């Protein structure tokens, strides 16, 4: 081993604590140092007289320390001769320590979707533990989750799944049969935080806070990066490109203790696989070359390094493909997103100011649609970012905040730009096919779709970030079902489908929708069956939302649909006896539209607002306040005073002065 004295001395100093505990051949080393003239008689006697190996090493260090680099170098050379296996362990430990420092540097910051070059945020200021479940849920339970919102959604999650929740440090714990999984599947929908969770695992392991005794080293492989590797590569070469370690170091680590190696395979659904991938290779050697995706599959199957452990993240649409490739024993886990408690924690971390946090969180919590959507970490980030911009611009968060439709539009646009790069479909085609499926579900009152129906209407559902795939047991076989992330997204895509169709077809669909929800068709139904779809449709007419769709995706909301929606609501409001049960519905339609001139026209046509039978929520107060601010004066407001709280009364107070009569 060709090392300089200073390098040898540095190694000895860096590992002295371990050397004290583990060197057993102390006297043979001391004898050689004495015969080489590196050790005087008196210290030699003191070392020999010491009772334990550890005490002998402590006495020896006094000599090494006073002798400087030359004596430490001589000790190192004797260590190579007398304790070769220990030295190998220490060299590997030294390599891993450097690797951990690199991981800490590389993984401590988050690069967000809107980050400009050089702008990063600490992971600790963003990461919040999502709800992770270790169970498959039945169809009825899934449907409840998809249709529930606000507090009801939290009740559904807490009542059925609290005992199945998991934390990162327990992913590889033994099960009830005392069997530890060799591979863990971490499934999650797009935007639910899989990649950020992997980043947290890497940083915590490198910092010594996670898997400290279980795994000596953790490698992170991203499937979208593996897709870009050209030519044939061995596992060692792939790891070398990814980790910054040289091939020899990686080979040494893998050979030393493969049972203490964890591979994190991130984004399996993005890996490009050929149809014959199951039969392409029987490679068992980490240095044998093959196409990168084949090498990775041999690792997943356990052909390469069968003693090692695997953690694989994937969207739900690729889970069954992964399960068929993956070695046993397997454990299935699913990232469900944030519980309400975690949403609150996320807001606290994001704003880092108690007053701003309280304002933002209380505002969003009062909007059942938004607080439900916040269970998706990406939407939580979009909402926090939007509110923070308003704070920084000096605006009041409760004054004209981005509409619910604009939040959903930003979310869909983000997924289209960052999670659909490999799609063979154009954006208009992809959205049209999703819209057709969503509309069919709304008309047939379905939130779950069988595989045949989805394949008829959506090409490549497995690559679609807006669809979730579930496996359910049916007697002696399995059934595959799909859904949107939540009923609210099905409603959003239905509205988007209607307003983005070709001009005449769009107009026809909008007419059908409004007829089905008209007061004449179902006068006693509140909220109207398609209330959310109609409100999203009005939100999609908003000038800023239309600009986003046009600029980012080339999508055009056709004028005829716009004109018909506006004409319809004016006719509804101009009737002599508008249905009071729909007052709040109309207010929210106008709020989502957020077009001051038209809202003024609509309010003047309405003139008398009656909400006698409805209890005003905070979101209703915002809608009422916004609509009233667009008009100079109105005739009469009739509300149920017994339902007013001090808070809601304070919110609508500026609007009350616009009315000539209050009842």
Describe the structure.
The chain has 663 residues and is of the alpha/beta class. Among the domains are: 5-82, Death Domain, Fas (Orthogonal Bundle); 106-125 and 167-337, Rossmann fold (3-Layer(aba) Sandwich); 346-417, no CATH class. Helices cover 54% and strands 11% of the residues. The protein contains 30 helices and 15 strands. The strands form four sheets. It has a seven-stranded mixed beta sheet with strand order 4-3-9-5-8-7-6, sandwiched between helices. Strands 10-12-11 form a three-stranded antiparallel beta sheet. Strands 13-14-15 form a three-stranded parallel beta sheet. Helix 29 links the parallel strand 13 (608-611) and strand 14. Helix 1 (5-14) packs across helix 5, helix 7 (139-147) packs antiparallel against helix 8 (150-161) and helix 19 (404-418) packs across helix 24. It comes from Culter alburnus. This is NACHT, LRR and PYD domains-containing protein 3-like. InterPro entries: CARD (IPR001315), CARD8/ASC/NALP1_CARD (IPR033516), DEATH-like_dom_sf (IPR011029), NACHT-assoc (IPR029495), NACHT_NTPase (IPR007111), NLRP_HD2 (IPR041267), NLRP_innate_immun_reg (IPR050637), NOD1/2_WH (IPR041075). It is found in: Cytoplasm, Cytosol. One of its GO terms (biological process) is inflammatory response.
């Amino acid at each position: 081993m060709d090392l300089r004295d200073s390098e040898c001395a540095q190694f000895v100093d860096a590992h002295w604590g371990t050397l004290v505990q583990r060197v057993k051949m102390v006297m043979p080393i001391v004898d050689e140092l004495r015969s080489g003239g590196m050790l005087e008689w008196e210290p030699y006697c003191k070392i020999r007289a010491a009772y334990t190996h550890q005490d002998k090493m402590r006495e020896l260090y006094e000599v090494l320390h006073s002798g400087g680099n030359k004596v430490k170098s001589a000790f190192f050379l004797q260590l190579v001769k007398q304790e070769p296996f220990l030295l190998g362990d220490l060299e590997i430990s030294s390599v891993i320590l450097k690797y951990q420092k690199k991981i800490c540097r590389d993984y401590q910051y988050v690069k967000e979707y809107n980050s400009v070059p050089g702008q990063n945020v600490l992971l600790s200021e963003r990461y919040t533990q999502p709800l992770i479940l270790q169970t498959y849920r039945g169809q009825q339970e899934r449907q409840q989750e998809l249709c529930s919102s606000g507090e009801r959604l939290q009740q559904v999650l807490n009542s059925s799944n609290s005992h199945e929740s998991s934390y990162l440090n327990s992913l590889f714990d033994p099960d009830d049969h005392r069997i530890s999984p060799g591979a863990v599947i971490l499934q999650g929908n797009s935007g639910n935080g899989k990649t950020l969770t992997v980043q947290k695992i890497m940083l915590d392991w490198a910092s010594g806070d996670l898997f400290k005794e279980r795994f000596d080293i953790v490698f992170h492989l991203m499937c979208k990066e593996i897709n870009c590797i050209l030519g044939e590569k061995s596992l060692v070469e792939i790891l070398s490109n990814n980790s910054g370690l040289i091939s020899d170091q990686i080979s040494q680590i893998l050979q030393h203790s493969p049972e203490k190696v964890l591979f994190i395979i991130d984004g399996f659904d993005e890996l490009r696989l050929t149809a014959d991938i199951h039969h392409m290779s029987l490679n068992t050697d980490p240095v044998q070359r093959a196409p990168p995706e084949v090498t990775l599959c041999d690792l997943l199957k356990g052909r390469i390094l069968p003693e090692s452990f695997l953690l694989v993240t994937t969207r739900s649409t690729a889970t069954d493909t992964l399960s068929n490739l993956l070695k046993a024993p397997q454990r299935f886990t699913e990232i469900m997103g944030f519980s309400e408690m975690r949403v609150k924690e996320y807001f606290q971390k994001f704003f880092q100011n108690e007053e701003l946090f309280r304002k933002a969180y209380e505002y969003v919590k009062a909007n059942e649609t938004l607080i439900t959507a916040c269970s998706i970490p990406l939407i939580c980030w979009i909402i926090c970012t939007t509110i923070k911009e308003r704070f920084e611009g000096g605006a009041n968060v409760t004054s004209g905040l981005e509409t619910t439709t604009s939040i959903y539009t930003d979310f869909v646009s983000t997924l289209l730009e960052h999670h659909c790069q490999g799609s063979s479909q154009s954006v208009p085609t992809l959205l049209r096919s999703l819209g057709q499926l969503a509309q069919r579900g709304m008309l047939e009152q379905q939130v779950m779709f069988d595989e045949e129906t989805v394949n008829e209407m959506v090409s490549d559902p497995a690559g679609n970030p807006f669809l979730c795939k579930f496996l359910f047991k049916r007697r002696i076989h399995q059934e595959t079902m799909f859904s949107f992330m939540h009923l609210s997204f099905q409603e959003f895509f239905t509205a988007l489908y209607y307003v983005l169709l070709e001009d005449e077809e769009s107009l026809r669909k909008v007419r059908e929708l409004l007829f089905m929800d008209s007061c004449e068709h179902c006068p006693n139904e509140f909220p109207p069956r398609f209330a959310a779809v109609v409100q999203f449709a009005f939100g999609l007419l908003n000038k800023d939302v239309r600009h986003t769709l046009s600029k980012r995706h080339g999508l055009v909301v056709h004028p005829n649909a716009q004109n018909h929606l506006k004409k319809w609501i004016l006719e509804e409001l101009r009737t002599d006896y508008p249905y009071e049960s729909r007052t709040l519905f109309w207010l929210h339609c106008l709020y989502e539209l957020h077009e001051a001139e038209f809202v003024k026209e609509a309010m003047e046509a309405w003139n008398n607002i009656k909400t006698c039978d409805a209890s005003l929520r905070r979101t209703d107060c915002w809608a009422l306040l916004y609509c009233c601010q667009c008009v100079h004066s109105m005739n009469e407001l009739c509300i149920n005073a017994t339902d007013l709280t001090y808070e809601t009364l304070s919110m609508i107070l500026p609007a009350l002065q616009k009315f000539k009569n209050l009842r």
